[in-house]
Amino acid sequence: MSLRPTRRRIPRLLALLGLAALPLLAACETAPGTGRSIFTGGMSAADETELGTREHRKIVPQFGGAYADTAVTGYIASIGDLLARTSETPNTKFTFTVLDTPIVNAFALPGGYVYITRGLLALADNEAEVAGVLAHEIGHVTARHSAERYGQTVTANVIGLGLGLLLGRGPATDLYGAVAGVALRSYSREQEYESDLLGVRYMARAGYDPGAMASFLSRLRAHSRFESELRGEPGKADRFDIMQTHPRTADRIARAIREAGAKTVADPITARDRYLDKIDGLLYGDNPSQGLVRGRRFLHPGLRFAFEVPQGFRLFNGAKRVTARGPEGATIAFERAKRAARGPMTAYLTQVWAEGVRLREVESLTINGMAAATGFARGRKGGRGRSGAVDLRLVAIRTDPQTIYHMIFETPVRLTAALARDLRETTYSFRRLSAAEAARLKPRRLRIHRTGAGETAAAIAAAMPFEDHRLRRFLVLNGLARDQSFPAGQRVKTVTE
Ligand SMILES: [Zn+2]
Hints:
Number of domains: 3
Structural class: alpha+beta
Radius of gyration: 25 Å
Number of helices: 18
Oligomer: single chain
Shape: globular
Bound molecules: zinc ion
Low-confidence stretches: 1-27, 153-180
Strand content: 15-25%
Mean pLDDT: 82
Distance between the termini: 43 Å
Helix content: 40-55%
């Protein structure tokens, strides 16, 4: 269960819990961007910088690390610096980081840390659209929304503790424990509007067309919609997606542009050609060092293993685990064990990994020469939507004395028998990759393609190295609504291997 107190509910909850609100009230400060008084939990500008610096080190590895191509990262930082110099705090040091992940997102930490993913860069059409994203994030910093969120986290933890004691469950310490959890929490609509207002102001001052903010939003929407369909959850944004963390609408952006009072930019910068030149060759999709999804196969050239999931399952490569979603909520999760253990794998399974769980049908296995063990449990899953009885099949595989991997098959009880054979095949598909196989795995890259006269979107898309939805992927990548033929010499984005 997760408690998600909103700002409005906080004072009432505090009153209910009989907690003194006084120390919290003293923690309001003025945000330079908006001049508005905000609640930061007593965080000074120096505190913000210190917090940001500390969190920066933790958050970068959680999103695949910093993208290594300095031609790209230097370019993005130069756009960010140009915008930041037009802000209310032109002398504040901003740090712009391109994160090496296919996730489409941008966010900010207190102390001027702004992040943008290479997944987002691949989706943008020109420099002005990226400037719009950076300007919006700078707005979150100068309006001190990022600091405000940390202030709220303190309050949330206070409340969590209180409720926990009331309900006799002990302190709810995991409320917003993870750093990424705070960075990825949604802003309020009011905060989004403030950041758009500020972002429009910075864009106009730097010479960009603020309208690029709105044009990029429609690309983000189309991308989010497609991703949610791929996941089999149409209309539901992924929690790591920018549409989830920055809830914005075209209407409100249009209103921000009108109300920002920014002067109309004569001859605004769009810089499409410059932008496309810079992102030509950008890594697309997974970085091989994080493992690659290729259709129903997952291959990790660095850790040198591979496995394949059944037909009807779709793989997602996450920072901590690989997940495959199948029919009716059936899932396969794959992760590396925190620590390895010596001795029989059945002992590891029952005494270390699943300690305290009543496992049935425990047996030891040999999977492609590797020691493994499996066990079965039936449980009940709570929560909204897919609740009910589920079967869990656990498989632990030791690839070397230091490394154990976990596979967790979760199936609705009524599907377990029907999927048993498929899941068994997935278990036995786990194998080591040879050095030669690993070396052959190349990342996909974004390429800028110049169209020939009459060339169609479908024809260009057909050459992209994807197993499915090639045309749709091409259209989303290029912000197009439907198949069309191009005139000679138009520049479009495509993906190659
Ligand atoms: Zn935002």
